Amino acid sequence: MQRSLSSFPFAPAVKVRLIHAGFHATADLCDFRPLQLSKAENKLTALELLEREQTLGTIVTFCSELDCVLGGGVPVGKTSEICGVPGLAVDVQIPLCFGGLGGQVVYIDTEGSFLVQRIVDMAKSAVDHCSLLAEDTEQREALKEFTVETILSNLFLFRCHDYVELLAEIYLLPNFLAQHPEVRLVVIDSIASPFRHGFEDLSYRTRLLSGLAQRLIQMATQQSVAVCSPPAYVVL
């Protein structure tokens, strides 16, 4: 049985470099010597990496100052920690002709705090804002499909009640993303909540959180999605 490289006690930076180089399981390393691995690990130039990140795009927030600070929006293919209401779940669906990604979103609720009415309110605001911006035929046609109903139908909600369910969901999520290639954002609200209580062995909790972080980084890279969550503060 192949063992995932994320399960080994490598330094996080090493794991990230191996994953970026295309190595995900022990079988991927069998035919490589250390020198070959070193070369494979550095096979991308900085320019190639920049071009790849630019191709993936960003999720615009329509907050000019925030988009400017983020270099155009929330980056796809990376993980981010964000505080505030779940507006990105709507922003990621903004049509391409308005500068958005026209994507879908997976929302994993671990706190039971998801309020559909809040999403409805933000969806209405986004639709109204785009309506005011529409200047040409392409944008006016896009607005016919950019409605509150389509925004809600493009948001896939998963409820996890404890850390076991969260870990299982993250493990299965790549298959779901493969079946829904339009998903460009995964929101986890929040990662920390299921890990705050019920752990006598804190080192075990730390290992679980570390493994979860590595899996999310791998998923963001491989599936070309933005992974966002509130800051993962855990009460000791």
TrEMBL record:
Spell out the InterPro entries in the cross-references.
HR_Repair_Mediator, P-loop_NTPase, Rad51_C, RecA_ATP-bd
GO molecular function terms noted in the UniProt entry: ATP binding; ATP-dependent DNA damage sensor activity; crossover junction DNA endonuclease activity; four-way junction DNA binding
Kindly indicate whether the keyword ATP-binding belongs to this entry: yes
Task: Please tell me whether the keyword Nucleotide-binding is annotated for this protein.
Answer: yes
In what residue span(s) does the RecA family profile domain sit?
55-234
Keywords on record: ATP-binding, DNA damage, DNA repair, Nucleotide-binding, Nucleus
User: According to its UniProt record, where is this protein located?
Assistant: Nucleus
GO CC annotation: what is one?
Answer: Rad51C-XRCC3 complex
Checking Pfam families in the record gives: Rad51
Question: What Gene Ontology terms for biological process does this UniProt record contain?
Answer: meiotic DNA recombinase assembly; reciprocal meiotic recombination
Database matches in PROSITE patterns: RECA_2
Protein name (database record): DNA repair protein RAD51 homolog 3
